[in-house]
Structures
1.
Amino acid sequence: MKKYYLPWLSLLLATASVQAQTKNIQDFDQNWTFNLGEVANAQSLDFNDSGWRKLNLPHDWSIEGKFAKENPATPEGGALPGGIGWYRKTFTVPETSKNKIISIDFDGVYQKSQVWINGHLLGMRPNGYISFRYNLTPYLFYGTKKNVVVVKADNSVQPNSRWYSGSGIYRNVWLVTNNKVAVDHWGTFVTTPKVSTQSASINLKTSIRNYTGKSQNAILTTVIYDASGKIVLMKTIPAISIKDTVKEVSQDFVISNPNLWSVDRPNLYKIVSKVTDESSNSDTYETPLGIR
């Protein structure tokens, strides 16, 4: 085991002083098509949406309507129309991404959203105020063949809010590319059990997800940077065996003379978690930290 890991660890330590790059997160807000109203089979891959409106996200179709006290949202809900809306987007994925995990993140869709990729239903989200993610990987085409993601939002049952809610994909959408061994989505949890002006104790729990379907060994390197980008602390766990889908790893740190966060001085640290698999593929995840 030592012979297997030491060259790998040496390479990792040699490059750890370089500011880590985040995973590939692509702005997915551009070049959608939209139709207001129910449409049969709009989720189909071969559906013709050439007559639909072209727009960029975020988008709220209610605000484009007319105010009327007769609208079922009532004045408390903004007195604007609800309804059903459909969104479609065509995109390609390069051949180089075949061994990656590709997900789509929605920061907010109001409400009762359903999402399809290439005709496959990924899921339904009844709530309109929380973000959500779907894994696109099993259904994607690679190279020049086009993929189609489709979103249906249903805000027709009114009133359903104590305030104006809006309708549709009203927040940003992101396309996220990860390696098959990576920090999980929302995969870090940071606490500061003891804090003073002299020192701060930090506990970091990191969840590492293994998409390979087989046991994997991985290295976790965690670097804490101050606001100027200077490395404050670094720790490496050189041999993590991930037999199941997700493994949680705990690390403890102590920062001397911490720059404490306050309203007047909002000092922030940045934690960069880097996971490297047996094939030397690496994936990074950034977590902001304020100590108070």
2.
Amino acid sequence: MSADHDLAYVSIAELSDRIQNKDISPVEVVQATLERIDRLEPQLNAFNTVFADQALAEARQAETDIGRGTYRGPLHGIPIGIKDIYECGPTTCGSESLADYVADQDCTSVAKLKQAGAIVVGKTATYEFAYGFPTTQSYFKPTRNPWSLAHDAGGSSSGTAASTAAGLAYAGMGSCTGGSIRWPAQACGIVGLKATYGRVSRAGVYPLSWSLDHTGPLARSVTDAALMLQGCAGHDPLDPASAKVPVPDFTAKLGQDVTGMRIGLLRSLYEDNCDPKLLGPYNAAVQKFADLGAQIVDLASISLTQMQAIEWPGLFADCATIHVNNVRHAGDKYNPHAKLFVAYGLLVSGAQYLMGAQARAQVRDDLIGALETEVDVLMLPTSGFQINTIQDRSPGPSIVSKSFSVYTPIFNFTGLPALQVPCG
């Protein structure tokens, strides 16, 4: 195995120790990362923009600072990717309509990560304005899965997932309105963390839905995801939804014994609607937790049959509110799929929107009630179908309508944190 490959797949936790101890310099790390991007990016299409010169300049500054004893923490000198809906240099949102837009300042979460010493090597590919999945309808070329170039990388945070999985970045930031951090993380075999609503600022992140948008990191390990969250979490007065609460040490409880932990399952939600090739590894993971001493609890009393009524009307209406004027004035630069989202949203009635809000409140109360009284965590599949090839991107309608609309969005509706981890 090449030295380039070995370095590319070192964890942030290990690499940060080597950087702090001056066993390797940020310049060496960034140079190796950029060389790997040069070699693999033409096959993957994971980046919309690469900041080679800027990244090297920041790496030299990091090397100087660390040499003088100013070490900022575990992200100092670490190359990361940022989804191209975060304001940070050229910000296209994957759309021709913003092909020439350059942000005049970094959004809050990127500024926090840079303050922690992280080095942004590029803006990663996204479906246009983060509308759904996959990125094949973006203004840019489709992002390919690093484990099989014929397959999609998931979406909408496809570039962050693909670049992290391929060793073109050590981690990155994504956004999630219904599953856009966790779906691509599953597709690329990495960790995806949708943070708690209000934990990470959304200021300067192009919105899709005011009420459902979340942000969070993608990484190759849970520890690395926790380190990324540590770097970007915190209150921000520029985001009205930002929670004014202390930021804990997200790594403090990693590695603890799970004996006695109560893990809640929603079997009625997925047992009949999940591809057996995915359900098998999931069930094996459940059994592994049981073998380690966790208590498995079936939450049969919670009904999520109203999920469709919650998701689509509210999401489409929010999208229309945000994009309708732009579509009217620059509709020729929106792809047809994105324009359909806006058109559907304009047809949503006030009654439909209110019914969705009421159903959402009921789901939130049911799940939070279960977490307060019956279980400590919920565990369910990330999606019900295997990732598709670039040429054949549409899973069966019954599976899509159920798994796409239920497995991941419930955590956006409730604002609860959600973590995708590989188990296959």
